[in-house]
Amino acid sequence: MSFLRAVCRSKTPLPAPSILLHDLLRIPTTTFKDSSPSSSSTPQFTNSPSFTSGISFCHFHDGRPRGPLWRGKKMIGKEALFAISGLKRYKDDEEKLEKFIKTHVSRLLKMDMIAVLVELERQDEVTLALKIFRVIQKEDWYKPDKFLYKDLIMALAKCKKMDDAMQLWETMRKEDLFPDSQTYTEVIRGFLRCGSPADAMNIYEDMKQSPDPPEELPFRILLKGLLPHPLLRNRVKQDFEEIFPDSSSYDPPEEIFGLR
């Protein structure tokens, strides 16, 4: 205790209190030998390695993480970033673009090529993304994957590239892949956004033949988008009420339909 009082009165800067007490109050550990009669019953004291080497800071932890606990998405490699930059630079020059794809994009590893595709979709560079997808389809490691199709079709529909989306849709079906409910929803939304309710209804009829159980969202998108087309809307509404008897659909005032 006298030593602690002397330390407290000293004006010399001290280490953090938690470190000081941690090391000053450390109790040596004891190691007992075998309790057989031939062995000594006197305990053998051994000092901790950090105690014999002076004040050690390795046992102190302030509660903060030692490093990043979550790094988020995988960083895109330099080769993939270079490819993305070049594709965007030459996208208005078909000749230079094709040459760049052959000399740089085709040399990318599988994960880098997929990273380029995903990033182009994220940036709404869907025409370039479609070209990269065609390159991927020619690779030896390519296998039909509905998620690659799904992301690209949804990106095309979002950008109102419905002709390209439907060409990709047909290719997907030829490879025995079926869209999921989210893909149906976005394609239906894309056609309604482009003012093509008949095409939206064609996708709707295809959706009803899907092996996956139906979901409410694509029905509700259609019910909202077909407000100017009451006959088509009534047909969808009847199906909705049969499939989801416990759910209710919104019926707007008759003035919306032009009725009085």
From TrEMBL:
InterPro entries: PPR_rpt, THA8L-like, TPR-like_helical_dom_sf
PPR-type repeats, residues: 145-179, 180-214
Keyword Repeat: yes
Tree of life domain: Eukaryota
One Pfam family in the UniProt entry: PPR_2
Keyword entries, A-Z: Repeat
Cross-referenced NCBIfam families: PPR (TIGR00756)
PANTHER family: PROTEIN THYLAKOID ASSEMBLY 8-LIKE, CHLOROPLASTIC
Protein's name in the database: Pentatricopeptide repeat-containing protein
